[in-house]
């Protein structure tokens, strides 16, 4: 180009400026606060409002909870101590009620000297669920899981050890028929036999056998009646039995509802809709008031067992709907691929369809379980002593008449811990099983 | 040719019933049918035998016998001389009342919390998360009992409102929150369609007489006239009309007592609906004009006027006024008394279900990909229009089905009324009636049927709606 401008003063800077730090309000905490908390008038308003809510809640709750009285034997003593320590009109918690009554809230009226049994049972329960929940636990622990139901039953209710052992024998008989007789008599006959023979065994042989064994080698724990159980022990027993029993039943119902067979399909639909359409509390009243009408005269069985059956049926119907959603969400190609491989119905379900469908429905299933566990509190209305029922009976004693919040806080926290950890586990499982987008 | 590929003809063999997949499903179904039939007949024969052994029969005659118990909250006229059937109806209406109130509040709470949980504002989203997780993970029963205890234990007694330094009423001396419940103003009409009573000719205390006679029904029984008044049947209207006729004779004597009847509320509801339809028509007309001329006429003020003007005319015509609660002898008089049981049940159900709805709303909004918003902006739509025409229709499709199932849950959970003594259908039909008549079987059957029909109705309506908004594919 021409050199006309060769001698003119450069108006374009030819040296780089030194790099400078960004403005103070564009970095670090200040930037974060500006962007997240005070980005507009609505945001500022919301922030201030929520800060005020947090302050108002904490400024009432924290002094109340932290200054709480732990060493008193009744409410009036508690209030006297509070007045002495913090002035006449101080509002402080009376945690002494928990210090004195926590065994009752947790075990109900279980005999004090036998507390080790529910505690041991709880530890055994944890050991039994560990291999189911976490795949890193050695697989051999599954034997503990298989035997745990019988051991737990024996630990909690007591009685002769031969009863549970004789009951296990029934399963062994069924397994033996399936393994050794199936090649000789055909699969179908073996399945029918493996169902009928153990049932006959439990009905007619099991009891006398256990009695005979018990008379030879008496080995038993002190029996504890169901009426003595209460609090979180009761809630956990009902909740865990309901969860364990309702999952398989719910899956069966969902398969029934997806089935092509007219009668099976309609029966499943009717069952699911009737159960889901009526509140659990009505079903519980049905169990306590009406079951005697439906059973042969003179039949009388444990109220807790009735409740477990009702809770199981109830949550099975909900699980069936959740699983049905999972089944419907699978692409049709999966079903066709399973058929093309020549798998029969049960094999295709077990190996191809259900693993995927259940994976999809994990959040819904866990939500149902959480709901079931929370619903165990409803048993208070038919006379079982769940934690909320026990809080009323604690309040009915003259010592603690007028204690509300401390008990509610404790019960609420316990439920929160149980349910929240179930929810977190479901998130963990979802993340672990996610196959796409890794 | 075709005969080559045909399987050889063979007669039907019995083993095909089990081993041939064409026939096996029939076998299974027949076996299942027989088993279910056996089970049902076993249950029914047991029931018949048990009923015989107890000397009971199976009939619903008890529904027409006098009930003999009082119900402390009634939407329709009821006294203890009326039948068990009527008591059940009162309970049903109470269940529906708390369900409708709960669904409305829960939706509002849930939508607000769901949107706020997605907010960029850290404090707000954390606070909402605490609300959602806290309510979702603690049993509903505990919340009901807790709010009930909060109301009865921590609120001031009515006598605390006496004097200068006591508790004070809210919102211009019109709402009182006491440990016996919440008192809110009632809307009353001096020219009620059902006719007005006239004050007894005692000139010294017209105001007090007005306040006491205003409480229709037995002493102490409060009527919730707001909101639920639309469901008042003709019965209360006619009884009020009868009172009106009696009153007309003495009209020249005393002062007219403002009152409210179902007819007034029906009229107001009709006017509101007509106004809404009118506003909608105005909108359609504006759209037509816009399509033909390209210019949209002004609609919003007209639409507001179409709803408000007739309403105001009717309210003035009926002589509407607020009947504020005021301190009487030991308690508040006048206004509407919302009992603690209703308040506790309503708030707990709404807060609890609201937490679930918040998660549903959050999921629905997250389910709409960001590309939809960007595409709408690329088309030149403004943010408001984008929300209305693009995001919401798609988000609602995800939100509505689980939302309705939450409404169903709330309705069924309202049976927890038993914890606070709210007189819903389970307490009347499924509680006191069963205890008094000893008809457990019939009572529970009716109770179950009521809930079942209600659930099926709601889910039927929901399915209709759902199929109208769902994605139309090939």
Automatic annotation (TrEMBL), chain A:
Q: Name the membrane topology term.
A: Multi-pass membrane protein
> Membrane-crossing residues?
41-66, 114-134, 188-211, 231-255, 267-291, 303-323, 357-384, 404-428
What family does this chain come from, according to its entry? Belongs to the binding-protein-dependent transport system permease family. HisMQ subfamily.
The record's CDD domains line, in alphabetical order, gives: TM_PBP2 (cd06261)
**Keywords on this record?**
Cell membrane, Membrane, Transmembrane, Transmembrane helix, Transport
| Subcellular localization(s) per the UniProt record | Cell inner membrane; Cell membrane
What protein name applies here? Amino acid ABC transporter permease
Q: What SUPFAM superfamilies would the database entry show? A: MetI-like (SSF161098)
Q: Where is the ABC transmembrane type-1 domain?
A: 232-426
Q: Which GO terms describe its biological process?
A: amino acid transport
InterPro entries, per database record: AA_ABC_transptr_permease_3TM, ArtM/GltK/GlnP/TcyL/YhdX-like, MetI-like, MetI-like_sf
Which terms in the GO cellular component ontology are assigned? Answer: ATP-binding cassette (ABC) transporter complex
Organism annotation: Alloyangia mangrovi
Name the Gene Ontology molecular function terms of this record: transmembrane transporter activity
Against Gene3D superfamilies, the record matches this protein to: MetI-like
Give the top-rank taxon of the lineage listed in the UniProt record for this protein.
Answer: Bacteria
From TrEMBL, chain B:
* Pfam families per UniProt: BPD_transp_1
Signal peptide, first to last residue: none
Instruction: Supply the source organism for this entry.
Output: Alloyangia mangrovi
GO terms for biological process, alphabetical: amino acid transport
Task: Give GO terms: molecular function aspect only.
Answer: transmembrane transporter activity
Transmembrane stretches in the record are 23-44, 87-116, 128-151, 265-283, 304-322, 342-361, 444-465
Q: What is this protein called?
A: ABC transporter permease subunit
Stretches assigned to the ABC transmembrane type-1 domain: 92-462
Q: How does it sit in the membrane?
A: Multi-pass membrane protein
């Amino acid at each position: 180009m021409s050199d006309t401008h060769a001698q003119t003063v450069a108006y374009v800077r030819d040296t780089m400026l030194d790099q400078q730090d960004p403005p103070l309000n564009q970095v670090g905490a200040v930037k974060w606060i500006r962007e997240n908390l005070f980005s507009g008038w609505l945001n500022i308003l919301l922030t201030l409002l929520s800060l005020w809510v947090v302050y108002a809640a904490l400024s009432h709750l924290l002094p109340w909870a932290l200054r709480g009285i732990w060493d008193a034997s009744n409410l009036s003593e508690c209030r006297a101590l509070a007045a002495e320590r913090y002035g006449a009109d101080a509002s402080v918690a009376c945690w002494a009620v928990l210090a004195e009554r926590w065994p009752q809230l947790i075990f109900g009226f279980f005999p004090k000297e036998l507390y080790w049994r529910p505690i041991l049972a709880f530890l055994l329960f944890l050991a039994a669920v560990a291999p189911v929940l976490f795949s890193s636990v050695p697989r051999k622990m599954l034997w503990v899981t298989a035997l745990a139901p019988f051991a737990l039953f024996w630990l909690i209710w007591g009685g002769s050890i031969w009863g549970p052992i004789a009951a296990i024998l029934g399963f062994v008989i069924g397994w033996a028929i399936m393994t050794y007789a199936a090649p000789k008599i055909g699969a179908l006959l073996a399945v029918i036999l493996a169902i009928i023979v153990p049932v006959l065994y439990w009905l007619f042989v099991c009891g006398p056998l256990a009695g005979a064994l018990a008379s030879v080698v008496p080995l038993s724990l002190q029996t504890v009646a169901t009426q003595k159980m209460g609090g979180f022990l009761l809630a956990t027993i009902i909740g865990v039995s309901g969860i364990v029993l309702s999952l398989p039943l719910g899956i069966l119902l969902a398969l029934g509802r997806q089935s092509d067979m007219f009668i099976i399909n309609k029966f499943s639909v009717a069952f699911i809709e009737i159960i889901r359409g009526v509140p659990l509390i009505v079903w519980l009243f049905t169990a306590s008031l009406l079951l005697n009408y439906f059973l042969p005269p003179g039949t009388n069985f444990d109220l807790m067992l009735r409740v477990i059956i009702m809770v199981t049926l109830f949550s099975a119907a909900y699980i069936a709907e959740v699983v049905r959603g999972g089944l419907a969400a699978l692409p049709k190609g999966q079903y066709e691929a399973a058929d093309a491989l020549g798998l029969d119905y049960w094999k295709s379900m077990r190996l191809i369809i259900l693993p995927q469908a259940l994976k999809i429905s994990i959040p819904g299933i866990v939500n149902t379980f959480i709901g079931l566990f929370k619903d165990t509190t409803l048993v208070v209305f038919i006379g079982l002593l769940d934690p909320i029922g026990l809080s009323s009976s604690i309040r009915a004693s003259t010592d603690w008449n007028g204690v509300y919040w401390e008990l509610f806080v404790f019960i609420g926290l316990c439920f929160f811990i149980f349910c929240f950890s179930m929810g977190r586990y479901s998130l963990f499982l979802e993340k672990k099983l996610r196959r796409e987008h890794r | 040719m075709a005969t080559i590929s045909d399987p050889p003809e063979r007669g039907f063999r019995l083993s095909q019933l089990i081993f041939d997949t064409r026939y096996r499903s029939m076998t299974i179904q027949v076996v299942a049918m027989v088993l279910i039939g056996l089970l049902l007949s076993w249950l029914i024969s047991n029931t018949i035998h048990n009923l015989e052994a107890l000397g009971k029969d199976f009939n619903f005659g008890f529904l027409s016998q006098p009930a003999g118990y009082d119900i402390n909250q009634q939407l329709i006229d009821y006294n203890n001389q009326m039948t068990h059937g009527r008591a059940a109806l009162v309970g049903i209406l109470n269940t529906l009342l708390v369900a409708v109130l709960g669904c409305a509040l829960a939706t509002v709470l849930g939508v607000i919390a769901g949107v706020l949980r997605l907010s960029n504002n850290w404090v707000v989203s954390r606070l909402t998360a605490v609300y959602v997780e806290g309510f979702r993970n603690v049993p509903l029963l505990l919340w009901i009992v807790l709010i009930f205890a909060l109301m009865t234990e921590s609120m001031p007694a009515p006598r605390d409102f006496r004097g200068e330094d006591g508790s004070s009423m809210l919102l211009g001396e019109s709402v009182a929150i006491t440990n016996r419940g919440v008192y809110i103003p009632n809307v009353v009409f001096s020219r009620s369609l059902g006719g007005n009573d006239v004050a007894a000719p005692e000139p010294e205390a017209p105001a007090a007489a007005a306040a006491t006679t205003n409480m229709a029904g037995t002493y102490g029984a409060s009527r919730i006239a707001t909101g639920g008044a639309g469901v008042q049947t003709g019965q209360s209207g006619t009884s009020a009309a009868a009172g009106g006729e009696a009153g007309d004779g003495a009209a020249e004597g005393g002062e007219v007592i403002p009152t409210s009847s179902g007819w007034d509320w029906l009229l107001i509801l009709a006017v509101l609906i007509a106004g809404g339809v009118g506003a909608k028509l105005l909108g359609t007309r504006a759209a037509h004009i816009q399509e033909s001329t390209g210019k949209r006429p002004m609609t919003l003020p007209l639409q507001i006027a179409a709803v408000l003007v007739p309403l105001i005319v009717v309210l003035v015509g009926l002589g509407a006024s607020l009947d504020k609660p005021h301190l009487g002898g030991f308690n508040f008089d006048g206004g509407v008394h919302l009992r603690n049981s209703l308040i506790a049940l309503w708030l707990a159900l709404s807060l609890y279900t609201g937490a679930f709805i918040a998660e549903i709303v959050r999921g629905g909004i997250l389910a709409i990909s960001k590309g939809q918003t960007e595409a709408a902006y690329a088309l030149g739509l403004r943010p408001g229009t984008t929300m209305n025409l693009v995001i919401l229709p798609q988000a609602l499709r995800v939100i509505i089905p689980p939302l309705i199932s939450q409404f169903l849950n709330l309705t069924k959970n309202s049976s927890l009324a038993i914890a606070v003594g709210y007189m819903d259908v389970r307490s009347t039909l499924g509680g006191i009636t069963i205890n008094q008549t000893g008809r457990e079987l019939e009572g529970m059957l009716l109770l179950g049927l009521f809930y079942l029909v209600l659930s099926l109705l709601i889910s039927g309506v929901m399915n209709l709606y759902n199929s109208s908004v769902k994605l139309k594919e090939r």
